Amino acid sequence: MSRGILVCCLLAIAGQLFAQKPSTIAKLKEGTQAIQQGKYHQAYLKFSEGIKHEPGVAELHFGKASAAHHLGLFDTAHTQIDKAIQLNPTEPRYVELKATIYMAQKEYDLAIPAFEQCVEMAANQASKLKIEQVHYNIGLCYLILKAYKKGIESFDQAIALRETFTEAYHNRGLCHLRVGNSELACQDWAKALGLGSTFSKKYIDEHCSG
Fold first, then answer.
1. Where do the structural domains in the chain lie, given as residue ranges?
2. pLDDT tens for residues 41-53?
């Protein structure tokens, strides 16, 4: 989960959840602002302070998990996001972060079902989750695992939701190349290049000349 998405999600709901708890709102905002500034250790401490006083607030555990993830403290990140999920098991953003932590640990076989679970959860409710990004992450996992056909399917879903998804075109092109379809690969790279991916030009030069 990107830093910007986390900040927007947390700040958007802070007032709704904690109107009667100004100290909790303050810690939540201070923590998310620290993440926005890339000050992950400071964010970690702010969320920890909030949890000390309000251990039953899922968003504080979510924020601490995100900070721990950025700091590479994966065991702590898992512990905190598991607590957030325990407190609010219907929130797809929590499951997405769980999957993202698995991905950072290169546990791709565990990341994929977690990402798929959060897509299913988001489909049943109004959510701030960017579904196209989740499908893209699933595609990346499959690409790394060399499950190229499944990767193509996931990138297809990401592109269907965002037609200008540059990275999805580029990586779908890689999957097409690996399954032997250089024509479709070149089409994807050309699309990515047209959307601003200078990285794709290298692949076009290497695989699409003539």
1. 1-105, 130-210
2. 999 999 999 999 8
Tokens standing for 149? Answer: 């056909």
Q: Which two tokens stand for residue 136?
A: 């893209």
**Fold equal for 1-105 and 130-210:** yes
Alpha helices in 54-91 (DSSP H): 58-71, 74-87
> Within 13 Å of residue 10, how many CA atoms lie on the same side as its CB?
34
Q: What is the DSSP letter of 151?
A: H
Q: Which helix (H) or strand (E) holds 199?
A: helix 199-207
Tokens linked to 142: 């499959």
Give, in words, the CATH class of 1-105. Answer: mainly alpha
pLDDT tens figures, 114-138: 999 999 998 877 666 889 999 999 9
CA pair distance 43, 57, nearest whole angstrom: 16
Token reading at 23? 């100290």
Closest CA to 166 of 189, 185, 186: 189
CA distance 147 to 194: 27
The superfamily in CATH containing domain 130-210 is: Tetratricopeptide repeat domain (1.25.40.10)
Is 141 within 8 Å of 111 (Cβ atoms)?
yes
0.85 surpassed by pTM: yes
d(CA 73, CA 137): 21
